Amino acid sequence: MSELRCGLARNPALPISLVDQLIASGDPSALLELAERDDLSADQIHRLARLGDAQVVIRMLDRGLLPPAEVDRFDPQVVIAMADIAPVPGDWAWRVAANADPAIRGALAATTYLSADVVAALADDPELEVVAEAARSPKITEALAERFAAHSHISVRRALACNEHAPARIIVALAEGRVPAAQLCAACDGSGHWLAESWSCDGMHQDALHDLDYALTLNPRTPAETVSRFAAHPSTYVRWQLAIRTDLPQQNYRTLAQDPAPGIRGDVAANPAIGEELIRAMADDPSYDVRRRLAHNPAIPLDVLACLALSAKIGPTLLPRIAAATPAEISELAASTVPAIRMLVAERHDLASHIVDQLAGNRDAKVLKSLATNPALSEAQLQTMVAAHGPRVAARVASNPSCPAELLMQLARQSPPVHKALRRIAEHPNAPAEALLVCLADEQARRIAASHPVLPVAAIIPLLTDADVDVAAAAAANPSLPEPVMHDLAAAA
Questions:
Q1: Whole-angstrom distance between the N-terminal and C-terminal Cα of the chain?
Q2: What are phi and psi of 153, to 5 degrees?
Q3: pLDDT of residue 493
Q4: 492 pLDDT band (50/70/90 cuts)?
Q5: Up-side HSE of residue 369: CA atoms within 13 Å toward CB?
Q6: Are 60 and 30 in contact (CB under 8 A)?
Q7: Is cis: bond before 416, omega within 30 of 0?
Q8: What angle do CA 85, 90, 95 make, to 5 degrees?
């Protein structure tokens, strides 16, 4: 019955008395759902905090519903959550820092607002994992960063390498090896770390050092001139991370664009920092996925994009370059004789009315499918699309916020049924009751339709005992559920 209580807790029409009843039930899942509500009174928030577990309290803290003064300062999970939201009293932090569980101490060490003196204390923790978390702290001092950079274990250095708040000069020293040689890594320290299963170490810590380079590349604080030497790095992961940085010299991007790994070339292709010369060169990449990623680059020239539209299998999506196109460019593209190019334009929802009408007159299903979600389309235009292409455009038409109830009903009655269209109908605010009843016959649409406020009460109530608990919970969350039924359900639950 916990699923039904959770559904009731989500119900926007739930009476105050039933909110109180659900709080009193003490059901952890229901209490967590109640913590998401916007209509809780101060008294209800207080009782939720008192009866709920740490997850409930943390969620209400995150949402700003619960005053910090009302939390349990002796619950370490709550104190850790608070330290990520705002500074916590020193005695609270020190109490958690002394917790016997290293996972608790480590979680505290990495919080956003932990004071520097507590971070410094955790840097001396006997557990390596806690020290590594302290190396990630936003409150790291220059002195601490120097200590971490010279730590004997590479895991601590790697944690520091990820820290965007560490001084740049120390990050550079770490990258250039201007620190004492490390003595241990996860593959040779005998700890049984899961990385030891895939890493090897002959005393040189090669795999761990590659992982350190990856972390340095990941950190935007690491200067471009420092990581640019990684363009030919032996580790695929390092080169892959380098490919998404936007601050590299063009020569690095040209090198990475020749990488044997298509995924790396794809990230280069999508990178808005690459120059036009490289964009044009990458349009001939043998991998269709690389060409598809290139089409998503906001800096791509329109003539290159037009060529890619024919070969890159872009699909129905609004590309950044199309979203930024000028009215003159849109007019030119919309008049193209190539359907794949018109399809790209049709994805924009802010088209001028004459462009919408022009595209709606297309016979090509790909163009109409892309256009079908445009709220500026008239009912007659939507009807024409459905009449011409039926199942091919049904789901997109059903997603149109302007789609009228009559057309949604027509789409629901298509035979054979278009399952994706039924799911879109089930969540559409204009869906009529008759269409929602049809949606109940579809396994996935049923879960959505069960919570639709237009669904008849006579159909909602049987769903409360549905074999699918997701359907039952959705029915319990339906705001059209009669109040007496809500009371009965809460009492039974």
A1: 5
A2: -105, 130
A3: 60
A4: confident
A5: 16
A6: no
A7: yes
A8: 95
Measured between alpha carbons, how far is 256 from 283 in angstroms, rounded to an integer?
15
Dihedral sign (CA 55, 59, 65, 69): positive
Amino acid at 324: A
Give the three-state DSSP class for 459.
helix
Per the CB < 8 A criterion, the answer to whether 470 and 447 are in contact is yes
Q: What is the DSSP string of 409-458?
A: HHHHT-SS--HHHHHHHHT-TT--HHHHHHHTTSHHHHHHHTT-TTS-HH
Extract long-range pairs of 409-417: CB within 8 Å, 24+ residues apart: 409/434, 409/435, 410/386, 411/386, 411/435, 412/438, 412/439, 413/438, 414/390, 417/441, 417/442
CA dist., res. 445 & res. 408, Å (int) = 14
Candidates 117, 176, 116, 127; CA nearest to 155 is 127
Q: What count of other Cβ atoms lies within 10 Å of the Cβ of residue 441? A: 12
C-alpha to C-alpha distances, 342 to 45, 186, 301, 315, nearest whole angstrom: 53, 54, 16, 12
Question: How many Cβ atoms from other residues are within 10 Å of residue 329's Cβ?
Answer: 14
CA–CA dist 412, 448 (Å, integer)? 14
Q: How far apart are CA 185 and CA 216, in angstroms?
A: 17
**Could you tell me the two tokens for 105?**
């101490």
pLDDT one-digit tens code per residue, 117-163: 999 999 999 999 999 999 999 999 999 999 999 999 999 999 999 99
The Cα 8–Cα 94 span in angstroms is 40
Tokens 């170490």, residue? 201
Residue with tokens 């809780």: 40
- Six token digits for residue 232: 């030919």
CA angle 369, 353, 296 (to 5 degrees): 50
Distance CA 185, CA 152 (A): 9
Domain edges within the chain: 249-314
User: CB–CB of 475/460 below 8 Å?
Assistant: yes
Count of residues making up the chain: 493
Residue 333 has pLDDT above 90, yes or no: yes
Tokens coding 273? 């920092």
Q: What is the pLDDT of residues 177-227, one digit of tens each?
A: 999 999 999 999 888 778 777 898 988 999 999 999 999 999 999 999 999
* Residues 450 and 475: beta-carbon distance below 8 Å: yes
SS3 184: strand
Query: Cβ distance 171 to 161 under 8 Å?
Result: yes
The helix or strand, by DSSP H or E, that contains position 96, with its residue range, turns out to be helix 90-97
